[in-house]
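On to our target:
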Amino acid sequence: MNRRAALSLPPPMADTSALGREQDLQGLSDEPTIHYLDHGSRSRLIRWHYHPAYELHLIVATEGTAYVGDYTGRFAPYTLMLTGPNVPHNWVTDEACEPVALRDRVILFSEAFVRRCIDFLPSARHVRSLLLDEARHGIGFSSELGRRLEPYFRRVSEHGGLRRVASFFEMVEALAEDETRRPLSSRPFKASSDPAQSVKLHRAVTYIERHYANDISLKAVADRLSMSETAFSRFFHQHTGYRFIDYVNQTRIQRACDRLTGGETPITDICYEVGFSNLSNFNRRFLILTGMTPREYRMRHRESVAPT
């Protein structure tokens, strides 16, 4: 399992608003419903994000890098993954791939729906384990299962009512029976029962996104949320899995990656533009997070996009 991406890092966690207002997934968390959507390789839905719904995600075209929690790995056609509530995720297509109109088939369903199903079928312990326990890490399934279940994704998209529910139940049964399935993220993610916590987290992340290039401090963000530094530090780590300073540094390094591949700005200038106060610290953090130096990162990117 590869925890580093050779040429890209997932940007830090975004709030559910990344999916746009038409996909009101905050509301979905309370509705016993099943939703279907699909999109292409250039959709604006392709962002590092999380939401309170379960997401069964099938890739049907292109190859690239999948990010689920702290997992990084490759995807290809018929990659099939399940993410539980509030597990951050993203699928980024390689630049070398041609754009396609249909890359992703996605089924979204609420935790309320899951619990009603489990109450209705109390003997289905394997389904309970799959959805209430394993999905907190994100789950990867075999590509053979992905290929086999694509027609079911289509049925869910084409039908409503009992036909949709019946197709969904068959899919869940197949997922629970896949003995090759594997956890993705090394740590589980659990949805908060208090919506105010999500609002606080969104405010903190937004502040970091806007001020990462400045001398941002834990105290400054804690003050904005009317929290003590200790309480905010504990809260932030609990909900993101990162220490505050590590999250800030990851944000800065991601922005540095964008600048390194987007032009010829000197590395020293990029270091200061993204908020680091000295070059040695920038180089050290960059190496830790990407596995290479900024210069190596730029050169590898050039090699990857150079015509053959």
About this structure: The chain has twelve helices and nine strands. The beta strands are 34-39, 54-59, 64-68, 71-75, 80-83, 89-93, 104-109, 139-141, 182-183.
